[in-house]
Amino acid sequence: MQPVLKADGVGMEYVHPRTGRSVLAIEDFSVEMEPQQFVTIVGPSGCGKSTFLKIANGLLRPTSGTVTIHGEDVQEARRSRGTVFQDASLLPWYTVLRNAAYGLECQGVNRKEAEERARPVLELVGLAGFEHAHPHELSGGMRQRVNVARALTIDPEILLMDEPFASLDAQTREFMQSELLGIWSKSSKTVLFVTHQIDEAVYLSDRVLVMSARPGRLIADITVDIPRPRDLRIKREARFVELEGQVWDLLHGPESEHLETADGHVG
Amino acid sequence: MTETSHEKRSTGTTVIDDAATTAPVTNIDESPKGGSDLTSWWADHEQKIYVAASVIGFLGLWEVASRLEWIRPLFFSSPTAVFEAAVRELSGADFWHDIRISLLEFVLGFSLAIVLSIPLGLMLGWFRRLGHFFDPWLRFFYATPRITYIPLLVLWFGLGLESKVALVFAGPFITILVGTLEGVRTVPTTYLDVARSFGAGQFHFFKSVLLPTTVPFILAAMRLAVGIGIVAIVLGEMYASQAGIGHMLMQAANNLQADRVLFAVLVLTLMGVGLSTILLSIENRVADWRPQT
Amino acid sequence: MSARTTHPPSTASVDSLGTKILRLIRRRERIILGVLGVIMVLVFWELVVVWGWLRQSTMSSPSIISERIVTELGGDRLIPSLWVTLRAYLIGLGIATVVGIPLGFIGGWYKRASYLLEPWLAALNATPTVAIVPLILIWLGIGQTSKVFIVFLFAVFPYAFNTMIGVRQSEAEFLGVARSFGASQSKIVRSIVLPGAVPYIMTAARLAVGRALIGVVVAELVASNTGLGFLISIASGTFDTPLLMVSVLFVGVFGLIMTELMKVIERQFDRWRPEPSS
Questions:
Q1: A61 to chain B: which residues are within 8 Å by CB?
Q2: ipTM given for this complex
Q3: The predicted structure's pLDDT at residue A262
């Protein structure tokens, strides 16, 4: 069966226009994702994981390699992925309902139909009753829910999430993690999640892809064999802590480091 | 990691590209070394080239149109004629006399306005009741274009220096007064709470909190007032005067000397810009400690 | 820092009239003080003239002015002048809105257009528009056309400039969202750029309304023989202080009405934008 997402030898190199210096952001990144899998890329800040997500989203063109979704290159097929950004970036002049419908509207669906399709999604994310509120009336966690709803409404084949809980306070963050698992199980989507928080990665995912510091390479592909549904309390259990430790070791181990000169040039 | 769907220009504002490019700055395998040099040079200097082309193009077209009489030189003049007029004026004595008068009137009126309006504004803002008392009048005078008072001031002060000074005084006075007043009124109550919780006396609070918070408002109002003052002085001189740049402007217009008119316009623009720049630099130096902007 | 005098709780089952009045006063303090201010200044003014401290010819007096208002309203020059001024004002302002906003949009959205337009807009913005009035006199002479054109010039720059800035300041993050969902350019403009520019356009409208008034008065003082401004200059020339004051009053009231109207409109648009806009 064809994997949902397939990245094949993806590389990303930036060339400074004036000095000609090159910076390698991602190096030879390959991964395959099966349907309804929850996969997280975890790595230190600046390692290129967000860049990879942008490539998977079709916003950036990789300098080498390809990314396909159900065999189709991501650059062509716009409709197949929904992105959840770190900042909810809800349009302040639209209601919650219209914001949730916005992704679909962007794809050409007329407003009425888009809002109709967004309604059940809002219910799914737990915001029923808030359809006519405005973003500035919502809390941070609620805005992120609208963010998720917006991505889910377009019924994507894969959901791309770029550190969506980074700007939330610790307690809300954990709560949203649990909520997200609930939403995910109900919507049965394939998710590619990016974060730098190890516990978040292990808690949420079926697979954790560990990425090294720049240039980002895949160091390990760890399967999280903790059974679902996962309560937040499993974070204290032995297996969880063990997996957490594994990831941590990988992130701080010798393979994750590279020689870099002060100006970022790979030496 | 740069997502370059926008480019930051040297003006400090983000300009949105009309072609939605989403590729990074350059792709290493797309263009050879030499090519990327040229394209990058163009990208850097594109804006300046367009601006220069636009300005030169316009001036050139204007000159040609004037020479070929596509437009009447008497009405529209031409860059060279304006330049010649400039040379003539700058070397003559009349111009300098006019400029001195205008600047004198402006400085006198503006300084008087500052000296009176700031303390008054502070007082009206501080003593809340007093401020409310005069609110309707202030709003009325603020909404009325100050130039409406020109004929009245001419009635009172005649055609000489005094009426112009009074006019330059009137506009900035109201503007800075209202600006100061608003500044005092918007002092966040949190500052008040902090001061009071430390048992600060009124005068100390005034000096350490109120004044610094209000200063940005005052400076902003002053910058606004400069524009208003210039309008006042130009119009005043145009309407009722025998000297000054505004008068020169009106005279040249009456004599259909478009070149002199344009020169005078240029001078006035430079005056306004110069004064604004001075105030802007003061504002920037004071604004260093401001949390916003 | 409004000192509140505390009243002992009323033991009577019905509050005395005095208490009721005091409570009303405290609540509407601002308005009451303002009204008091108007009345007291007017009374003071009247007394000052009656006592001879100020000559009637200088500033006239409230009583004379109010009498004059009645006379002129019944006459045949105040109302027509008002209409002339109003018409020129509204037409000039209207054209400025219709021309300025699209111009600003083009300058803000299209990179190349901004390169071409911006230097000129900036230069014209810096030029005191008053100074251009004599030029317009040369070109268009005296009359309604030049008056409307002058009003237009005064009002158009805030619109063009502010719209341009407002379009440019389109939040990058919103644009990123729209792009990631594959929105077309037109969709982006309609859903993000234009709504985002609205606060800037509102500010521009506020500025333009004021500047258009300045424009119409300037035009009528210098380049016209109709309208309120012209009435003012006539009154000045004939030392007719009461008429002068009446005309100034009408201009002022008009300005006040426009200012307050703009405030109300702006507040409407602030519904979804609780944060202050530039």
A1: 22-24, 27
A2: 0.79
A3: 41
